[in-house]
Amino acid sequence: MSKQFDVIVIGAGPGGYIAAIRAAQLGMQVACIDEWRNDKGGPAPGGTCTNVGCIPSKALLQSSEYFEHANKHFAEHGISTGKVSMDVPTMIGRKDAVVKQNNDGILYLFKKNKVSFFHGRGAFGKAVDGGYEIEVSGASTETLTAKQVILATGSNARALPGAEFDEQTILSNDGALAIESVPKTLGVIGSGVIGLEMGSVWRRLGADVTVLEGLPTFLGAVDEQIAKEAKKAFDKQGLKIELGVKISEVQKGKKGVAVAYTNAKGEAASLQVDKLIVSIGRVPNTNGLNHEAVGLQLDERGAIVVDADCRTNLPGVWAVGDVVRGPMLAHKAEEEGVAVAERIAGQHGHVNFDTIPWVIYTSPEIAWVGRTEQQLKEQGVKYKAGSFPFLANGRARALGDTTGMVKFLADAETDEILGVHMVGPMVSELISEAVVAMEFKASSEDIARICHAHPSLSEATKEAALAVDKRTLNF
């Protein structure tokens, strides 16, 4: 006997669980299906973000940053610690506990909002009058029916051809979060968000880390000035980054992994490491969805084809997050999930792709929103730029971390903010002010005129806005 719902959500990652909760808040009967299991076989909602992505990586980054502070920076504060060591299993255990807290929090939110949760894999059965049958295969088999279906099945790590993940020696982000002891040597293929964050974690703990990047420029999506500043900091820390390489072969042996490649000069080179993290992007996850049964359209990458409002080619079927076009960001998925739930309810959900913030949680952190200087040049947009270094910020000096800057880009005629780019301490938090400002079409003058607390890192934002008009007060 099929169970009837108004909305069925497949996937309980950031896009899925948020969509389910918002739909329930709007008065709909909602089911959410997710197959992720914890180490005891129980449900672990939250998707890649909670289980092997955003949340666990930040836990390890925090632990490794504390370790580096204790080893290298406490003495300058007058703190004597003696020999400091890292118990990696305890660090991993703390990370796992943080993940479980988030898993349990989502299950609580489902109960609070009366969302029916089904632990298993969701797949299309068939189209029925006015809706769809969804089959749940897990501990038990269920058949659910609804007129509206939201697909939020996320993405999987992309493997390097000829170097499939074994999660012991050749690692995806999943394996990189579960290394049991600090490797002497670690290779990372790909200098994107995952590669830099995981490389940073294990470098801080003592690994000799080499990052191999195929592109000739470092962080090509980031504002060039900001990327150069970040690269300078990573070089100083001892994170080795080679650009413009072409991987020839990856061979796993008894002593680890051998990577043969051609460097930027066209010369043959090799790298021998104990472990290798492959972080060359992610692919949409439609495995086992049985999309053929209902004629759901996928593109050449395997992503679900949607319009600007996240509608698929099927009436009543929507898709959000990593499994559709656009940036693979947890907060983008959340916004799409909310918007789709509101559209189903007859409201006008909206996502502004131009004001989605990006963050890389290395040290220094990197954050940005809007267009880069190179994009504005390519588009022929006349602009003004202003920047302010954390070196001249009182709070940054007190923290002992003056790396980086805040940079504003504003329209040359209207002064509307077109982009804000940051590298430095806690810029993941500072970027929100820029997002709000851009969402309300603020000018750099607006930010420059707003009172910011002193001493605070946020004063660097105000000063960078002042710099657009060449009138900084503290630099």
At a glance:
The chain is of the alpha/beta class and 475 residues long. The chain contains 13 helices and 21 strands.
Provide the fold topology.
Blueprint: E1 3-10, H1 14-25, E2 30-34, H2 47-52, H3 54-73, H4 88-112, E3 116-128, E4 131-138, E5 141-151, E6 155-157, E7 170-171, H5 173-176, E8 185-189, H6 193-204, E9 208-212, H7 224-237, E10 240-242, E11 246-253, E12 256-262, E13 268-273, E14 275-278, E15 282-284, E16 317-319, H8 330-344, E17 358-360, E18 365-370, H9 373-378, E19 383-389, H10 394-399, E20 405-411, E21 417-424, H11 427-439, H12 444-449, H13 459-468
Parallel strand pairs: 1-2, 1-5, 2-3, 5-16, 7-14, 8-9, 8-14, 9-10
Antiparallel strand pairs: 3-4, 4-5, 6-15, 11-12, 12-13, 17-18, 18-21, 19-20, 20-21
Helix pairs in contact: 1-8, 3-4, 3-6
Binding site for NAD(+): 190-197, 213, 281
Family: Belongs to the class-I pyridine nucleotide-disulfide oxidoreductase family.
GO biological process, one term: 2-oxoglutarate metabolic process
Structure description:
With 475 residues, the protein is of the alpha/beta class. It contains 13 helices and 21 strands. The strands form 5 sheets. A 5-stranded mixed barrel has the order 1-2-3-4-5. A 5-stranded parallel β-sheet has the order 7-14-8-9-10. Belongs to the class-I pyridine nucleotide-disulfide oxidoreductase family. Residues 356-465 form the Pyridine nucleotide-disulphide oxidoreductase dimerisation domain.
